[in-house]
Amino acid sequence: MSVIKKLFWLYVYGSMHVGASVLALILMTNHMFHIPFNWAVAVFGFCGTMFSYNFMKYDGLFRVKKTAGRRVKFVVFLSTLALIAAGVSFLFLERITQITAIVFLVLTALYTVPFFPNTQNLRNWSGVKIYIVAFCWAGITTVVPILNAHAPINSDIFLKFTQRFMLVIMLILIFEIIDLKEDDPHLKTIPQQIGVRRTKILNLIFLVPFFFLEFLKIHVDYRQIAANLIMVITTALFTVYATPQRPKYYTLFWVESIPIFWLGLVLLISSL
């Protein structure tokens, strides 16, 4: 494997790409609500996401000694560094932000680790996964930067939280279509219950209220609407062409790139 391929594997499977997606949404919140960049929020969002996702994927390697390939061990090492960075940045957050972040941390922990004997984690509760992940993403990318900046709370923030929640659900549904052949039937994912075709239709329907929520803002920004329209069309295309036969990079890289692509669109159109 070439050096470039190894680095790309590390970037994707080391959850740096998903961390970049979360960071992109945090930066979009800053842009929309005119919040100055805060390094602690940015580092906490990126590194906290990177560690959380890697812990979910490789949690056995964190808790007990197991044999693993060199690349996976290196991912665990980088994840440990990410945890330290997230911990340090946490100390520089505002007190209200720290309390809020702890709530999302607890949800992430419950999602991953069974705390009580003979119990399952939330990840194994049928139908719960999609909402827990969407709630945490929406909270970290919307609530955390808003609270840390002491920005005034208004209806626009609730609209943005709802939009982010819906976006993550739509992205997860694409993931679930791709992972249909590998997912445990007991997970009862949406495609397992209603089929691929109906899941795609559901995703396309979700895109409609997602788009029109922008018109309910106190101050409607038509440049933002233009960026949203392009992003909605892009997400619709990824939904239509999603099949269980697609390679994993279809979601792990391309679908996860949608928030980054969205931020790029917003910044580009706003500069025109």
Task: Report on this structure.
- By secondary structure, the chain is an all-alpha fold.
- It is 73% helix and 0% strand.
- It folds into 2 domains: 1-153, Tetracycline Repressor, domain 2 (Orthogonal Bundle), CATH 1.10.357; 155-272.
- The protein contains 12 helices and no strands.
- Helix 2 (16-32) crosses helix 6 and helix 3 (39-63) packs across helix 4.
- The chain is globular and about 45 Å long.
- The mean pLDDT is 88.
Roughly what is the average pLDDT, rounded to an integer?
88
Give the N-to-C terminal Cα separation. Answer: 42 Å
Structural class: mainly alpha
Strand content: under 5%
Radius of gyration (Å): 19 Å
What's the overall geometry? Answer: globular
Would you state the CATH class of the largest domain?
A: Mainly Alpha
CATH topology of the largest domain: Tetracycline Repressor, domain 2
Number of helices: 12
